[in-house]
Amino acid sequence: MADLITDPQKAKLRSNGQFSLVYLGGDIGAPTSLFACRVNQTFTTYDMVAQVTFDGVTVGAYTDVLADMTMLVGTAAGLSDVGICRVRKAPTSAILYVNESSEIAWADNLYLTVIEDFDLWRKDLRIVSKVAYMDYDVAYSDQHTNCDPVPVFGEDVCIFRPDVTIDATNFVTCAAFNASPSWVVGSTISARAFSVTPSTGVTITGGTTNTPSIKLTAAGKYRVSCLLTAANGKTFVGHRYIYAYDKTHMPLTAFVLESLSGNFDSGGWSFQLKMFAEAADIRERAKVFILARDFYAGVEGSVGTNSGRENMVVIGRIAEDETITVDPEQGDVTFDVRGPNYWLAQIPCFPTGVQNTAGAATAWTNFHSLTVDRGLFHLLHWRTTATRMMDVTLSADSRIPAETSAPASNLWAQITEMATSTILAKPMCDHYGALWIQIDTQVMPTADRSSVPVVMTLTKADLAKQYQVTRHIVTRVSQNNLSGVIVSNGLIGSAVFSLANGHVPKRYGHTETYDRLLLASQAQANVLASALLEQANNPYPSIPQSLAANNRAFDIAPRQFASFELAAEDNVRGIAFSGHLIPRSVTYQHDPKTGVFTPTVDFEAETFPSSSNLYVNGDVPNQPPPISYPALPPLSIPQPERIGIVPYPPTFPISYVVLLDETLGLWYCADIHAVSPQWFSLNMGLTDIDMAGIGRFAVQKYRGGLGVHAISSSAYYYGQIGAGMSKKYDDVWLTTQINSDPQAFIDLAVNPYSGFVAVQGGPDWALNHTKYIFYGIGGVLTKRAAALSGPNLAGRMSYGSSGDLYITFAQGNAVVPMATITKNNGDAFPEGYWSQSNHHTRGGGTQNVANWFPGDTDIAYSSDGGRTNSVSHSCGIGINANNGVAIDPTGAYQMVVGDTATARRTSDGGTTWGDVPYTFVNARQVLHVLGFSAWLIVQANGVVLITEDFGDTWTDVTGNLLTFLPAASIRQAEVILP
Amino acid sequence: MTEAHLTDFQIGVDLDHMLYLENLVDDMEAIGIDWGYEPYSVLQDLADGSVRGLGWPTAQWRLGLVSRAFRDKLREHCTGPSASVYIKTRTSEHADEYKVFLCEMIWPNPKDEGHSADQRLDLVINFRKLILQA
Questions:
Q1: What confidence tens digit (pLDDT) does each residue in A162-180 have?
Q2: What are the strands, taking DSSP E only, across A30-182?
Q3: pLDDT computed for residue A634 by the predictor
Q4: Do B46 and A18 touch (CB under 8 A)?
Q5: How far is A22 from chain B (nearest CA, A)?
Q6: Low-confidence ranges of chain A (pLDDT < 50)
Q7: Of A409, A411, A560, B67, which has the maximum CB count within 10 A?
Q8: B131 touching A (Cβ < 8 Å)
Q9: Where is A532: in which H helix or E strand?
């Protein structure tokens, strides 16, 4: 196969007189308003708003507005100071339909501006009467049987004519779009139609072919839309842009390109810009790109492999971190610009999943002949806007999974989870912003690698005089233990095990394990095990090459090679190498004083699975896997009504359940409604002593973030679901914050709406000693100024409405009350109350509180956050010391567990109590209320039960928890609700 | 640096309005100009032992003694630290070769300008980012 870089291009790259002029283009300055109007309604709540009535149109027509366009909400025309949302479908003459959101403070007469922009957004799932809707109101009909086509026709294009003003005489032509890579699951593309907006002065030739030619007679920003029709009758349109600049419409030049790099590990590109006065024109999250005018031998003309985009250096969006130098004379600002991989990783999302079905798909949660690609299509097309605004190319892998699912917490992690943990495919974004999900070259079968192009054969004339090669001569991995499952078309699974290189490890290195992979055959598994082993022991994992040319041909995606030879006489070790290199990172330096624009590419040498059969079939375990070896995925189809993403019962969706074990710390589950819920450790970063020491933890219950806060008596820990925990503060720090006495962390509470945590600290061994609230978010605590009123022995805390922070203590006396309520998160208006108990449980974030003593039978109910209490009533059993009482948000429904087989319940606020009709495993139980009728109990044996009918029937959701916690002793349970 | 005649060099803000340096002011006396031209900014050693010239061409005009009026006329083409201008300058020592470029004119730091009554001494104008014009 010939190099992608042609011989004439190589001659340019090897010429003298190379330099580049770089420019900043894109959506700079005020955004292009497509439609502007004002809100024409009042709102009783900002929560879950999904449509807005409008009037007062000042720009455009509502028919100009397209699905997935960005809309600004502001207090004046064109502003976004109130918020930014997405148009989720075409509007009517009076209503704009937006993505369901709770983050915009909607108000009558606010200004709405739909701008010429398609960004990455999450599309949320909504459940109504047990029916799932995508993107608020899209019901399932046949979307997984007759799939929408996915436009892949190239990313944005920039045309720059600095020498003329583009007009009818000096027109420009764009032939860079090519829709032939477009695809559709289970069908073919039958027609395509290109259009350009605005259309004035635009001529499209071949607009119904894959490769249109677009003639422009004026500079400006043009939307190029590609409407695809599939043979199954479905249509879908994608949008890209042409930015045309000329002599009188110049891109920006007053900036410094401080850094620019793409990296395999991060999966994309980023760059930094230093700007000066023009920085005021940069809008947050705006799309910008670096454009180059390249000169070789003094003659202008760029070199690249993407025809029509050779001048496009990199595209991204302004990220959130700016570094501003405040100086009235020489002020500047440095912007971070990031590619789509970064933005996908910033978007939180709910767990997603699709199951394979033997028959035709019947719901959003199943797919006939499911593959990983089909699962990814569901995720990227129906749960995001990716297929609308960027090229998406999938793996083309045909292995069959029983399901594709991802509990991860952001879109990039979900894509990675679905692609990497099954078929070792990896999502990557190239420098144009296109998404590639491909199996890495190093684990491809050798025979298939002939399809991987060689970008360029690198000779000594292409390289700087001196470069370094890292050569590993000791193996790092001694044995690769690989396992997975083969699922046949009949959806029957069989486990497969492989060992490379055989049962006896190599002399050096550690053992690596790849498990739960999706495999095609035993032979394929064996070769894959060997390929992974060889890659891990690659003697040349890093060959950084400084290319002595303005060569932008290499990228981290899609798959590609460089050919390279190292002669023995060129190095003192006499090492020779001849073969392919794989680019893993590319870094550019642009010198603004010379125009020199050269890359450094870090290559990895290609490796191959062993040709000497240094692999064998693995051993099938004859006993249940050890704790460190999670179970294989379910191999048969679960009950259809219990599968996938639709919560069951769907009346109360749950994002995460988090448990605290007395010895093995924190564990979480992201699919509690699955047939076999999977539990994961949250203890990464903790020592055994840390894990066993944690006494309490707290999460944000509503619209939950992922933050998890925990305390032992001597430490405060913070972490995030999916990422583990770390110790943030210890008792030494606490002592410096209060006084010289030994101090302890006593209790904590997270505001269920804001996510801020309040941690109580002070001497919990002494009556009347001062305690303080430490308050913060993201693991950073700050001491509040005021000491707690009437501090006492350790007690419990909770957040209620109106900012109440209610604290009950373990002991009081005639002077010191047993409860206090503060506002301003522990810093103002302390109120002392004569609580009747040291423990309490709050109904969500309401003012309904049940006060109780561990071991006692009495419960006193308060409907005003603890200020006044009802007469105590006996619930009939001694209350469990941990989470023994749960109370729903209405306050009327309460449930109690003790150290017996009986749980008790009340539906009248605690006046009368009766038995829950279920016999539990006694000794210790933990209870948590999920919602108005949903409750969760963890029994003494670690079995987790959920009821959604106030205890009449219970469902076992233990899943694989006891695999990890065979001697579970659960101290606390909390849930995070969507 | 090689000396040449001032009459052969031109400058202007666009291609259609370039002026010979001698015509910038009336009664310009014939003076010489030390000129320089480098086709590359950087010389890069390559792995095969050769050298590649990278970066844009640069040029320099050094005027040993000019009138204040001439200096000010030249300054009108570059009122800030730098400005985009067209120049015609000599590019070869061995041939009488002149080329026209679009380039960035860099005005010297004021402290580097020598003063003598109504004259300016050793005025050095650097040009970089030279783009050859057809």
A1: 999 999 999 999 999 999 9
A2: 33-39, 49-59, 69-74, 83-89, 95-101, 111-118, 125-128, 131-134, 138-139, 157-161, 172-174
A3: 39
A4: no
A5: 12
A6: 623-651
A7: A411
A8: yes
A9: helix A522-536
Whole-angstrom Cα distance, residue A812 to residue A809? 7
For residue A419, the surrounding DSSP H or E stretch is: helix A411-423
Partners of residue A458 in chain B, C-beta under 8 Å = none
Instruction: Answer yes or no: do A16 and B54 touch at CB < 8 A.
Output: yes
Q: At a CB cut-off of 8 Å and minimum separation 6, what does B26 contact? A: none
The whole-number pLDDT of residue A859 equals 86
Residue/partner pairs of A488-494 with CB below 8 Å, 24 or more apart:
A488/A400, A489/A369, A489/A400, A490/A358, A491/A356, A491/A358, A491/A400, A491/A402, A491/A636, A491/A637, A492/A635, A492/A636, A493/A402, A493/A632, A493/A633, A493/A635, A493/A636, A494/A635
Task: Please judge whether A594 and B47 are an interchain contact, meaning their C-beta atoms are less than 8 angstroms apart.
Answer: no
The pLDDT of residue A147? 98
* Residue in chain A nearest B14 by alpha carbon: A163
Q: Evaluate whether A927 touches A887 at the Cβ level (below 8 Å).
A: no
Question: Does the beta-carbon distance from A464 to B50 stay under 8 Å?
Answer: no
Residues 6+ apart with CB under 8 A from A124: A99, A100, A135, A136, A350
The closest CB to that of B54, out of A19, A299, A570, belongs to: A19
Q: Phi and psi (nearest 5°) for A414?
A: -65, -45
Q: What does the pLDDT read at residue A967?
A: 82
DSSP letter at A45 equals -
Q: From the list A17, A463, A594, which residue is nearest B46 (CB)?
A: A463
Q: B48-85 as b/e, with b when 16 or more CB fall inside 10 Å? A: eeeebbbbbbbbbbbbeebbebbbebbeebbeeeebeb
Phi then psi dihedrals of residue A640, to 5 deg: -60, -30
* Bridge partners, residue A936, by sequence: A928, A946
Q: Is-contact A493 A486, C-beta < 8 A?
A: yes
DSSP state string for B50-79:
-EEEES--EEEEEEEEEEHHHHHHHHHT--
Q: Are strands A366-368 and A352-357 parallel, antiparallel or unpaired?
A: parallel
A685: left (phi over 0), alpha (psi -120 to 50) or beta: left
Report the pLDDT value the prediction gives residue A52, as an integer from 0 to 100. 98
User: CB B129 to CB A598 under 8 A?
Assistant: no
Residue B112: per-residue pLDDT: 72
Q: Number of CB pairs < 8 Å for A and B? A: 80
Q: Residue A607 in contact with residue A543, Cβ under 8 Å?
A: no
With an 8 Å Cβ cutoff, the interface of chain A facing chain B consists of 14, 16-19, 21, 295, 298-300, 459-467, 548-550, 570, 591, 593-596, 598
**pLDDT score of A925:** 64
Structure tokens at A148: 């929408």
**pLDDT at A959 (0 to 100):** 84
Q: Phi and psi dihedrals of A351, rounded to 5?
A: -55, 150
Q: Are A188 and A150 in contact (CB under 8 A)?
A: no
Is residue B54 within 8 A of residue A596, CB to CB? The reply is yes
Burial class (CB in 10 A: 0-12, 13-18, 19+), A375: buried
The whole-number pLDDT of residue A490 equals: 56
User: Residue A32 has which token pair?
Assistant: 């292009």
Residue A861: which of A817, A799, A909, A896 has the closest Cα? A909
Task: Report which DSSP code applies to A924.
Answer: -
- Cα atoms in the Cβ-side hemisphere of radius 13 Å centred on A117: 25
Closest CA relative to residue A382, chosen from A407, A408, A411:
A411
Beta bridge partners of A832: A820
pLDDT tens-place values along chain B, 134 residues long: 566 666 689 999 999 889 998 888 877 776 778 999 999 999 999 999 999 999 999 999 998 888 888 889 999 999 999 999 999 999 987 778 899 999 999 999 877 776 766 777 788 999 999 999 97
Helix/strand/coil for A475: coil
